[in-house]
Amino acid sequence: MTQLQGIAASSGIAMAKVYHLEAPDLSYTTTDIDQPEEEVKRLHAALDISKSELEKIKAHTKESLGDEHAEIFSAHLLVLNDPELIQPIEDKIKSENVNAEAALDETANMFIDMFKNMDNEYMRERAADIHDVTKRVLAHLLNVTFPDPALIDEEVIIVAEDLTPSDTAQLNKDFVKGFTTDIGGRTSHSAIMARSLEIPAVVGTKDITSKAEKDAFIIVDGINGDVLLNPTEEQIGTYQEKQNEFERKKQEWAKLKDEPTVTSEGRHVELAANIGTPEDIEGVLNNGGEGVGLYRTEFLYMGKKQLPTEQEQFDAYKSVLEQMNDRAVVVRTLDIGGDKELDYLDLPNELNPFLGFRAIRICLERDDIFRTQLRALLRASVYGNLKIMFPMIATLEEFREAKAILEEEKTALRNEGQNVSDSIEVGMMVEIPASAVLAKQFAKEVDFFSIGTNDLIQYTMAADRMNEQVSYLYQPYHPAILNLINTVIEASHAEGKWTGMCGEMAGDSIAIPILLGLGLDEFSMSATSILPARTQIKALSQEEMASYKDTILSMGTSDQVVDFVKEKTDQAL
User: Fold this and answer.
1) pTM flag (> 0.85)
2) In angstroms, rounded to a whole number, what is the distance separating the alpha carbons of residues 498 and 449?
3) CB 428 within 8 A of CB 393
4) Domains and CATH numbers, the chain
5) What is the DSSP letter of 175?
6) 3-state secondary structure of 177
7) Measured between alpha carbons, how far is residue 111 from residues 82, 108, 114, 134, 237 in Å?
8) In degrees rounded to 5, what are phi and psi of residue 98?
9) How many whole angstroms separate alpha carbon 275 and alpha carbon 293?
10) What would the DSSP string read from start to end of 68-132?
11) Chain centroid to CA 468
12) 270 CB contacts (<8 Å, ≥6 apart)?
């Protein structure tokens, strides 16, 4: 028996035989050619086949996982249509008289190396996109069969160095019971898709591909991050019990789907979901979501060649509001920049885009884009319970300017005879330490706060959460973070306002008791985390958690906080 430790990327226990999803042999020989135009034709034939395949994968992904995940393949298609990539390949074929395989591979590797070494997370992800799609093109040039996970027709656990988005999108969870990889993290495309598919996954094991033999029996523990190869009969029995226990928990969670979220003494808190597209609402309702705490509207803008129209946006917002049937829907206005870029917007290249021209800063500068979105939101407001929040607010002036533009558009629409709701709450994301520190002043002007912990943590700790060398500093339970959160919650309550949280921390089992004690009003998370969180909160006393508040806030380290919470909430956890 061999046991490996990785990162638990998607909960559950899976047991089956190993299926190696191996990259095809794409080795080639660089050759001199006499007819470069024929090689260019070969290149474009391979590009066309690859585009056709990606269109089919995109359609399959949209049907099985929704628009948000399908947009990954829109990005892949943009790569294959990008003249900045294709033209240099053609030029290399013609100027150096080399075959298409060599020109493609050498040019792609140049771009991949360039993007991989950039500080910008978006650019690093673009390197992965280029790698994924150019491998497909190279396979067609070589007449090599590209891996097709959709053809798997028996129960297996996939073992791979990594899973590309196109690999993961084709997984049939009736046969693929789980997967494990050498590399990757909880925020990688494959991990996010695994959670959407609800199949167990462990990533980042470092060397599972070299350890796992074909058809060997394997156990993937997506709860604790363990992978067992060739387990003993006793271990198989133990994990079957764990698997059965997890299934029993899921059945117990399901019983709470239509129940309110209340603590042991009956205090209600709201459990909402983070979404990216209208198609995500089905998952929210199926998992008992009491609202939408974060609608990431940037997915309406991504994977396109131009800005979405007012009508396109109106249709999307109206759909979400109607489906939620008067449950609260908190819509974040356009949050582009940092790790999310739009090819069709001529935005400046920046040394540190996370601290640069992004989110509300772009919207206030390009108010034509902002006003179009606000008009669409205001027109849709009569179809449900809409709340609007502005991202990346650092100063009172920014919030006041954004709200003034909103009021101008509201007046303009009413003058045009359009109906607009009278009860739209207007709030802001708290993700910059400055706005958390100044929460008392902001609380007098906003209707609510929503704490975006993903950015708040990295800005407070001065640590890029995607940088492995400083990842140890990305500490959600650090007392500095908890004190900022407490400052925001207390400031909102002093003004009779409410505070929610829409970062990853809101669905974390260690953080939930702490946040409950701090008085957080709304927890917004991935839809599949809602029922486990509701079960946990039901077993916790808010009064008891609040009694630990001063002790926790006075601690000096993250480890102290974690140990204390585990000790005090052992039965609840």
Assistant:
1) no
2) 7
3) yes
4) 2-18+151-233 (3.50.30.10), 36-141 (1.10.274.10), 260-568 (3.20.20.60)
5) T
6) strand
7) 12, 5, 5, 11, 49
8) -110, 160
9) 8
10) HHHHHHHHHHHHHT-HHHHHHHHHHHHHH-B-HHHHHHHHHHHHHHHHHT-S-HHHHHHHHHHHH
11) 18
12) 261, 290, 291, 293, 328, 500, 521, 522, 523
What pLDDT sits at residue 571? 43
DSSP assignment, residue 294?
Answer: E
Place of tokens 């609402």: 281
Q: Which of 222, 204, 224, 208 is nearest to 468 (CA)?
A: 204
Distance CA 69, CA 193 (A): 7
Structure tokens at 483: 């004190």
* H-helix or E-strand spanning residue 274: strand 270-275
Residue 389 one-letter amino acid: M
**What number of helices (H) and strands (E) belong to the chain?**
23, 16
Q: What does the chain come to in residues? A: 573
The rounded distance, in Å, linking the Cα atoms of 169 and 157 is 15
Active site positions, annotated = 189, 502
| Owner of token pair 């135009």 | 37
Quote the tokens at residue 192: 């996010």
Residue located via tokens 């002790």? 551
Count of beta carbons in the 10 Å neighbourhood of residue 47: 22
Q: How far is CA 443 from the centre of its chain?
A: 29
Measured CA to CA, the distance from residue 270 to residue 520 in angstroms comes to 9
Using an 8 Å Cβ cutoff, are 303 and 74 in contact? yes
Helices marked H in 142-277: 165-169, 189-197, 208-211, 233-255
CA–CA gap between residue 572 and residue 541 (Å, rounded): 10
The rounded distance, in Å, linking the Cα atoms of 372 and 357 is 20
Q: Which residue has the tokens 């009969």?
A: 233
Residue 343: which residues within 8 A CB-CB, separation 6 or more? 78
Question: pLDDT by residue for the chain (573 residues), tens digit each?
Answer: 899 999 888 889 999 999 998 777 889 999 999 999 999 999 999 999 999 988 888 887 777 767 777 777 888 888 899 898 999 999 999 999 999 999 999 999 998 888 777 655 556 667 778 888 898 899 999 998 777 676 688 999 999 988 876 677 678 888 999 999 998 777 566 777 787 778 899 998 989 999 999 889 999 999 889 999 999 999 999 999 999 999 998 888 888 899 999 999 999 999 999 988 888 898 899 999 999 999 999 888 876 778 999 999 999 999 999 999 999 999 999 998 765 667 677 777 777 777 888 899 999 999 999 999 999 999 999 999 999 999 999 999 999 999 999 999 999 999 999 999 999 999 999 999 999 999 999 999 999 999 999 889 989 999 876 665 777 888 999 999 999 999 999 999 999 999 999 987 898 899 999 999 999 999 999 888 899 999 999 999 999 999 999 999 999 999 999 999 999 997 444
The position carrying tokens 């209208």 is: 278
Give Dmax over CA atoms of the chain in angstroms.
81
Distance (Å, whole) CA 328 – CA 337: 27
Residues in contact with 551: Cβ distance below 8 Å, sequence separation at least 6, in sequence order:
564
